[in-house]
Amino acid sequence: MKKILLANFERTLQMLGRAIDDCPDQLWDASDEAISIWQYAYHCLIGLDVFLREQGRPFVPVAFHNNAGGNLAKGQGPVMTRDQITGYRDEVYGRNRDFLNSTPEVDFIRDTESMGARLSLADLVLDQIRHVQHHVGAMHTQFRRHMGSAPPWVGLG
User: Fold this and answer.
1) What's the predicted TM-score (pTM) here?
2) Nearest Cα to 17, choosing from 87, 99, 101?
3) What does the alpha-carbon distance between residue 42 and residue 50 come to, in Å, rounded to a whole number?
């Protein structure tokens, strides 16, 4: 089960990474979009950072955190640069991978507490996969609307 979860999680990270890397500069903070690509990216990353961590390790937001990104609220903070987002992405991906790879398989099905709820690590991983893919879909919609195409799907092969 752990191997399957982590393989799907990795493909989800790849899809978010491609959306960040392949976003043209003019679309990074498009004025005609209610939510910008950088906001979706940061929102996904902060979710991964908050929910997939060792129990008891406190969450500390990055120095450039603002509500525009965290809460998907346009105009409530400065635009985050691609360098800020990619640097944060690399840190979060590293922490997530280290945590998940070092967690024994049996711990994926044990209940844990997260944000006041009791659920398994497997539930948290699946929830984050769904969360990130939801927002990657919105990012891809913007790409198609503005450019006619989006980064490719990352599948099983």
Assistant:
1) 0.95
2) 87
3) 12
For residue 11 the two structure tokens come to 């493909």
Number of other residues whose CB lies within 10 A of the CB of residue 73: 14
Each residue of 64-105: pLDDT tens digit? 998 888 889 888 889 999 999 999 999 999 999 999 999 999
CATH code of residue 98 = 1.20.120.450
Residue with tokens 């280290």: 98
Token couple for 134: 């939801």
Instruction: Domain count for the chain, please give it.
Output: 1
Q: Which of 82, 70, 68 is nearest to 25 (CA)?
A: 82
- The range of the structural domain enclosing residue 85 comes to 2-147
**Owner of token pair 């709820």:** 117
Q: Is 157 domain-assigned?
A: no
In the beta sheet, which residues pair with residue 112? 119
Q: Are 60 and 36 in contact (CB under 8 A)?
A: no
